[in-house]
Protein 1
Amino acid sequence: MKKMVDVILPLPLPGCFTYWLPQPWEEMVCVGCRVVVPFGNSKHYVGIVKRIHHEEPTAYVVKPVEEVPDRQPVLLPLQLRFWDWLADYYLCTLGEVYKAALPSGLHGGDYHPKTETVVRLAPRANEEAWLHSCLDALKRAPKQAEALMYYLELSNRLSEQTDSRQEVTKQQLVGRSSAAAVQALINKGMLESAELTVGRLTNAWPTTLPLNPLNAPQEQAYQTVLQQLEQHPVCLLHGVTSSGKTEIYMHLIAQALGRGEQVLYLLPEIALTTQITDRLRRVFGRRLGIYHSKFSDAERVEIWQKQLSDQPYDLLLGVRSSIFLPFKKLGLVIVDEEHENTYKQQDPAPRYHARNAAIVLAAMYGAKTVLGTATPSIESWYNCMQKKYGLVELTERYKEIELPEIVSVDIRELHRKKRMKGPFSPLLLGYVREALEQHEQVILFQNRRGFAPMIECHTCGWVPRCRNCDVTLTFHKSVHQLTCHYCGYTYRLPECCPACGEVELRKQGFGTERIEDDIRQLFPQATVARMDLDTTRSRSSYERIIHDFTRGKTQILIGTQMISKGLDFDHVSVVGILHADTMMNYPDFRAYERAYQLMAQVAGRAGRKRKRGRVVLQTKNIDHPIIQQVIRNDYRGMVATQLTERRLFHYPPYFRLVYVYLKHRDETLLEQMAQQLADRLRIHFGTRILGPDKPPVARVQLLFIRKIMVKIELEASLAHARRLLLQVQHEMLSAEDRFKSLIVYYDVDPM
Ligand code: ADP
Ligand code: ZN
Ligand code: ZN
């Protein structure tokens, strides 16, 4: 009897595909292995074996597996269970999960690990005397002596006496001396060179340091977290900014590692990994691995393979995609800044929430999850109130640092009196000037990138819009272009208004680029940097901006929400929130919650040892409850107001939401189809169906969009609802031929 395998293919098609397994591979292939299979007339894909059986399908001729690239599975059984859960919960296909989960290097045939040449001291180098004799011997070869000194400096030999055989990449060393000098040292047997696969580089972290001792409130919080985790699968650590949450995580990590377990540490943003990496590296050294999308594919494959090996990283730090890595003995998951909406993947499918998925993953392993933040998401807070999660609070900042003083400024009034200087109030400018005089640093927060959010014709009011999407274009001054922030399409700025010929096109509003321009003019002496999507396209640019600011090389940092995310700076005395209203006016039921979180987080960047930080909050809605709650640091007040509204209007956490999106090129047809789908859904779901509506951006990349909202009671079975949704979609798409080209997808628990 032939052996059959059901495989997952990296395609957005439902279900698995069955192939038969030719004799030579019958014993070798197991669940989780990769197999190369033919598909359609001429295509080949790398599939993942999900099931092995003997039930030969009779409806079609089964094709054979054509190749088996490796001897070991690339996926552990538990990961397949996790994939099933993701596809099921987030209403997508296993193929879509596959594409998101596996680094693309594992999708395509064979893979060659990237190697790099490293150099290190020859084995005898432990002997101090030998090293001196080397340096002596190089007296007449100053270039080589210099190269050796550089090596020692790079490998930290001079400060850390313990591990003298640290590797430094050859390229690094050659970059600071010369290829000839390095080669000469190798020839003389002072240095030796070796090839290492990239992911296994271990350079420059010779010794590990002990954990910082916790202070009394931290110790208490740490013990309480441990107690809570005995009773709950999840514990929320609600600690004000700079209270030492990260220190507590490190103690929790050390404890888990001590039990022989692995730890996954999730961060919402690559920008944060640099700072946290340094802190973790000092304590956990080589046990720490890092995984994120700015890594090359070869590096990601390398880490994946290492996690499958006998010597995996014990501690993995990563952004949301690291939940897909193989773990053999996961014991603890930490989700830092758990309230961040970047944990939710928007596009493409699977539209998963990494915090929620991580909690499910942890539960599958029997592991525990710690969520940490200064501004918990309302969902997590609610789960604590319901006693589903444990809750631990930390209300003091570490050492003498006080929480900042927040002052609100009524910019509507100041505009009326013509006292604003561009986007800046006199109060803010005064504070900035003072801070600069005292060599302190300033953060200016504006949640819009680009130069001007809008260009408008002075005469007829014409506004440029994207040809593909239903949005106005943003002006970027440095490249003198209009850009669509949805599809990325760029346009030339017209010389005059295409509607009426007027030459004066006014730039409306302020983006980060314009703020930077204005600040440079007002403070020509100050060093200024900007951190937003446009200035951080590469991994190194993030690191450079943060590094320069941490080191005090930059005095004023201007940025979007990117700067709010848990970065830790020591010398910031003033924070300016330039325009609170853009955040509050966003048409979404989470707008106020998010505005609160953003403002509280940005404000939390202010404050120095022995000096209270100052935050200037500029707004046109000075009396708005959210503004008041931010000023009073009244998280509970904010939650109470929001929960009342959410309950009244049937939103999370009281109801679950599923958005059904429909896309089509033909707007009239789309409208008909959306109506029909909503009507069909109403038969089953009744008033739980709202819409169809035009979303705020109703056309993206030439496709028109409609949205149907499904609100499901928390107590109702989501599984049942999901089955119904798919069933109705299927009925509808097969009802009429012209409906076939409709694109339908779901966003479960949308953010
Ligand atoms: P949070 O994660 O709550 O924002 P951090 O853990 O980043 O707070 O702590 C803020 C700052 O205080 C960091 O620079 C950290 O090194 C320092 N710090 C906090 N707790 C301790 C401790 N117990 N020992 C030494 N330094 C600490
Ligand atoms: Zn005009
Ligand atoms: Zn566009």
Protein 2
Amino acid sequence: MPNRISGGPDLPQQRRVVTDIPGPASRERAARRRRLVADGVGTTLPVFIEAAGGGVLRDVDGNSLIDLASGIAVTGVGNAAPEVADRVAAQARLFTHTCFMVTSYDGYVDVCEQLAELTPGAHAKKSVLLNSGAEAVENAIKIARTFTGRDAVVVFDHAYHGRTNLTMAMTAKNMPYKQGFGPFAAEVHRAPVSYRFRDDLSGVEAAEQAIDRIERQVGSGNVACVVIEPILGEGGFIVPAEGFLPRLADWARESGVVFVADEIQTGFCRTGDWFACDHEGVVPDLITTAKGIAGGLPLAAVTGRAEIMDSVHGGGLGGTYGGNPVACAAALGAIEVMRSRDLNSAARRLGELMVGRLREIAHEHPAIGDIRGRGAMIAVELVRDDGRTPDPARAAAVSKHCHAQGVLTLTCGSYGNVLRFLPPLVISEDLLAEAMDVLADAFTTTA
Ligand code: PLZ
């Protein structure tokens, strides 16, 4: 069937609300969805999308929504970016699959070359390509365990690493990710993270506290790896205080522990650097990436020191679809956009715009207890009148108002009280400013 509507950057870059949201056409489809899709699959906003591009999503009722989600930090280069779509189409016409473990192709190796160049550190690096973030984290643990001959995995409070069995064990929050899904994998240990809004510790003090916990409760000689999101994503866009990550990385090096940065949400220009670790010059031994790497196609990777990556026996890493040629073509197109349009600078500009506006809103609304994040990964933590107690109800109400007004916002956080903003890095500043106006209005309306 020919597609009459085309997405991508040609889609009119405007907010336009022509029906209730969700409108009648979406509501009709939602009934069909309920009949056919498992109830356990959630939805933030029950509209059906027919086209998307730049900073907007257009639904089947003709509403044009400002996108502050990017499909959870995926479409940084914009939805249906021509550089991605064209390469995907061309590759799909050549061949769609061979299985890289059966016969090789250039796209896979090209993506590994880009990863070696772009990820932190000048050492020799190698990669394995996979399908999802959780699968990348699982593989990082396999590699760290083989390299060290140790079992224990250390993760942090408020961490999110995925929904597979091992990564559920690593994820902190019970509902909705873990409830009823156990038993969970063994040898996963949790340490406290630096959380400036809720602790009084400097970054180094918080790191010492975490290290002490690990040494007392696990024993550093048993630890294969520490896995940390340099900015914790689903857990509430928690930015560890300066010095926390470098101290932890130093301790890992001294202790023979593999330092794994999970940059699945923070990677590929989102924070205004290629990777969030770059901000403090932290060089992880292994880095997991996914989401933003391929402009919306499923692709993930573990990249790391060649000697660590190569500790795994031949045939020990892989999977049918990992590094699928169409997904690799998409990644090469996406990375081309990041370079040619300097999306790191774009992310920084968007961040300044958002933080500036959020400060104004916070001035009038004490419900905003904290504004944090980096680049185009920004959030506000909402609290009650005491300035401390989490207020998830307010976060939900503000988000609901934004949705009704045609702005797609997301919430997150261990308490569900964090509103997060993840616009595509190619969104126009005007559109983002308009979204912030709607947000300001949402705070006033829900006060
Ligand atoms: N590590 C840091 O952010 C995915 C989860 C959405 P997958 N975050 C979005 C949801 O509710 O399932 C994520 C992440 C970090 C790992 C993952 C997992 O990546 O591609 O969803 O498996």
